[in-house]
Specification:
heterodimer; A: 16 helices; about 35% helix; B: alpha/beta; six-stranded parallel β-sheet; 10 strands
Chain lengths: ~375, ~400
């Protein structure tokens, strides 16, 4: 994989490719690198190119080379690299690759059967093509923000960069589909991923109800009752009475008999008298603690949960028992715990390796893969191409 | 030419609710023959709580998540129906399920049983919390996982305020499931071997939504504060009221240049050189003051107008689009995003999440009524006797909402 990506969506895609065994060569600007290297938060607040936490997360398992694509020689070197690749992934603004002389039309002549994926905020054409966006704008323009938060307050941005990560997942999926098809037909493909369109998937139910039933979207509670966070003595519990066949077992947990009034036996009744039921439930929950009630519900087959902080998640008994976090050593930040596999494959297990230092693999790639001589390497360095 | 990449792939879909079906919907959209196996005694949640009059065949949400699929009804506690599933597995490439840990084994269709039926089968299990660990048998929906994973703790109006859900988990996990299946298909194409995939929805969503935040906690020992609508570094950033009911625009100022432009646009050119606002740090300190002035400007405009004015000047601005806005959005129309069933009639269907050259995304059909393909699959595809092919009997049906 020739990886021309930076920031979030593209790097998450190529992180997944690397984790499942692809040789990912990340092409970075000399001296500066992926712009994420310059963005915090940083390890020990050290603003160094090797200490950006999001960069360290997003670039595990890749190799890094430096190459200046604004120089003619740099473009030639890149084409040489592409001639030996299966896949190119990029997330420059639309039009940049063409200006560099590296459009899909050009690159597919360089390598027959090439798959190229272009990720951008709004896709490669139409009205918003050149619009600027950060995560908040993407969340807003993909319909999710309108649904997030309190109906009596403004829409609320997500604390996670969900739109860009979703696009990274879709890009991984799309490139594998294209590679699968290439192996059958011999034909490559161009993949156009709009982060906005990719994120529309996140509200597919609300959007479909809008398109087909004319429903408006609003910031509202979940339609089912109960299905929310409820404040308890030491935090918040997540309470549902699902699966419905186990709902009656809540009698063994909740003390207030009014919660089991005949009217509330079916979810429809609870939805009709939502206010009344939820008032009773809130009062009930004030007599419980989040850990014990979570366990008591689950022991009876009820989908209960509890709200945890990142600190609690990091020590979650489930994560610890399953070894979800893996230690990775890195020369600048030392041994640290990272999330391991996104899913567990029996024959193609996730491989964990650290993020590369800027240009760490110049020699390995230029000399080892492209077989440039010592003299050629010297010239490229002297001309600041690499 | 339209060559859908998965047109040679057959998928048995035992999943229900949202995450599993979303995974197989992506496979179906890109050409796989997805045969959804439904349990009539407890219908999928999205088929609703009413069985009378075929109400379960009228929910747009169910159809969206199950479009382009076939539906058969099977009761896997009955020998005859178990034989149908066995025959189906024998001619399928992939099986997807999201049952609670142990359920498939109890039914006699655990992984070791399935590979005896078909050796190179790809089996994707999507349990809520994984097949091992103390939560292995726990019931979970998005609401539990978002809270228990720490994901929800990041989204609140102010630090320490009540956290809100972003509700993306089912889709995130569905896409991750499809990623896993494709990983296995590529491997099978090269080696001829199938494999077993276990996707813990808690893990896949944590990976895709807060991997960087968990790493931050591990490295710094501090919890990133909930930011509301503000940015950790850039300022100003916010969500501002516009003309109309519940209409808003967001904007983010990332540089001094963008700040100077914003000052001009909102009619305060003097602020561009005002030392009180000269740096991000200063602007963060006086954010409330800035918000009031910015909102004074946005209130005079529609959310689309504000976005267009700001974007024309190069400032990241996004209207908070609701589903009606999206249905009529000029950009999405220009992209040909929305689709019509079978390519005819009104474009009332969502498009594909990405465009693959040579593969036109399609809604071949809106999705199946309950058991619509019982006969086609059991008698046609599997060649079982006609007597075994039963239509759906409403008396047998139960919904996911029926109390015990």
């Amino acid at each position: 994989v020739v990886d021309l990506t930076h920031y979030i969506a593209g790097p998450y895609c190529t992180k997944l490719l690397a984790g499942f065994g692809a040789e990912v060569i990340k092409v970075e600007r000399p001296r500066v690198g992926d712009k994420m290297r310059g963005m915090g938060p940083f390890y020990r607040d050290e603003e160094s190119l090797e200490c950006s936490l999001p960069f360290l997360w997003l670039n595990t398992g890749k190799r890094s080379i430096t190459l200046d694509l604004k120089k003619e020689k740099g473009v030639a070197v890149l084409k040489h690299l592409v001639s030996q690749a299966d896949l190119v992934v990029e997330n420059f603004s639309p039009g940049v690759m063409a200006r560099l002389g590296l459009s899909y039309e050009v690159l597919r002549e360089v390598k027959r059967g090439l798959v190229m994926a272009s990720i951008s905020n709004f896709g490669q054409n139409s009205v918003y093509r050149d619009y600027k966006a950060e995560e908040m704008q993407l969340y807003a323009m993909s319909g999710a923000m309108h649904l997030t938060g309190d109906p009596n307050r403004p829409p609320l941005a997500a604390g996670s960069r969900v739109c860009q990560y979703t696009a990274g997942l879709h890009a991984y999926l799309a490139t594998l589909m294209a590679l699968l098809r290439r192996d059958i037909t011999g034909e490559g493909a161009f993949v156009d991923i709009s982060i906005q369109e990719s994120a529309l998937e996140n509200i597919e139910i609300a959007l479909t109800n809008g398109l087909q039933a004319g429903n408006a979207s609003k910031r509202a509670k979940h339609p089912f009752v109960p299905w929310d966070l409820y404040e308890c003595q030491d935090g918040y519990s997540v309470i549902t009475l699902m699966p419905a066949r186990n709902a009656h077992r809540a009698k063994e947990i909740f003390k207030d008999p009014r919660l089991f009034d005949e009217r509330f036996a079916h979810g429809r009744g609870r939805m009709e008298d939502r206010m009344e039921y939820e008032d009773l439930l809130r009062a009930e929950l004030r007599g419980h603690r989040k850990g014990p009630i979570f366990e008591a519900g689950q022991a009876r087959g009820l989908a209960f949960g509890s709200l945890v902080t990142l600190a609690e998640a990091a020590e979650s008994p489930q994560h610890v028992a399953r070894g979800f976090f893996e230690e990775i050593d890195h020369p600048a930040v030392g041994r640290q715990r990272y999330c391991g596999a996104p899913f567990r494959m029996s024959r193609t297990p996730w491989q964990t390796d650290r993020a590369p230092l800027l240009g760490e693999h110049n020699w390995a790639v230029y000399e080892g893969v492209l077989e440039y001589s010592y003299e050629e390497m010297g010239r490229l360095m002297a001309e600041e191409v690499i | 030419m339209n060559t859908l990449p998965l047109s040679a792939i057959r998928v048995v879909d035992l999943s229900h609710s949202w995450a599993g079906p979303h995974c197989t919907r992506l496979l179906a959209d890109f050409g796989a023959e997805v045969i959804k196996v439904e349990y009539p005694r407890r219908l999928c949640l999205l088929r609703g709580s009413v069985k009378e009059g075929g109400a379960y065949n009228r929910h747009p949400a169910w159809f969206q998540v199950n479009r382009n699929k076939l539906s058969i009804t099977l009761d896997l506690t009955i020998e005859r129906d178990r034989a149908v599933l066995t025959d189906l597995v024998r001619i399928s490439d992939v099986l997807v399920e999201n049952s609670r840990t142990g359920v498939m084994e109890k039914l006699g269709f655990g992984y070791s049983d399935l590979v005896k039926i078909r050796e190179d089968l790809i089996v994707l299990a999507m349990p809520a919390f994984g097949h091992t660990g103390p939560y292995a048998s726990y019931a979970g929906y998005g609401a539990m996982m978002e809270a228990l994973g720490g994901i929800q703790s990041l989204t609140a109006y102010e630090s320490g305020g009540k956290p809100y859900r972003i509700k993306e988990l089912d889709v995130t996990n569905g896409v991750a499931g499809a990623c896993a299946v494709l990983t296995a298909l590529v491997y099978r194409q090269r080696t001829g071997k199938g494999q077993r995939i276990e996707l813990s929805q808690l893990e896949a969503a944590s990976h895709a939504l807060i991997g960087e935040h968990l790493l931050e906690f591990m490295m710094k020992g501090t919890h990133p504060p909930a930011q509301g609508n503000r940015h950790r570094v850039f300022a100003p950033q916010g969500c501002y009221r516009c003309k109309g009911e519940d209409k808003w625009v967001t904007l983010t100022v990332r540089s001094e240049e963008e700040w100077r432009t914003l000052c001009e646009v909102i009619g305060h050119p003097g602020w561009a050189s005002d030392p009180r606002f000269a740096t991000r740090e200063n602007r963060i300190r006086r954010h409330n003051e800035l918000d009031a002035v910015i909102e004074g400007w946005t209130m005079q405009l529609t959310h689309y107008e504000a976005m267009e004015i700001l974007q024309r000047r190069g400032i990241p601005a996004g209207a908070v689009l609701d589903v009606r806005d999206l249905g009529g959005d000029p950009h999405l129309k220009g992209r040909g995003y929305f689709l019509a069933e079978g390519g005819r009639g009104e474009s009332l269907f969502m498009g594909a999440p990405f465009r693959l050259s040579g593969s036109q995304p399609e809604v071949r059909w809106r999705g199946p009524d309950l058991g619509a393909h019982n006969r086609d699959v059991a008698c046609g595809l599997l060649g079982r006797p006609q007597a075994e092919c039963r239509p759906v009997d409403e008396a047998d049906i139960g919904t996911a909402y029926d109390p015990a």
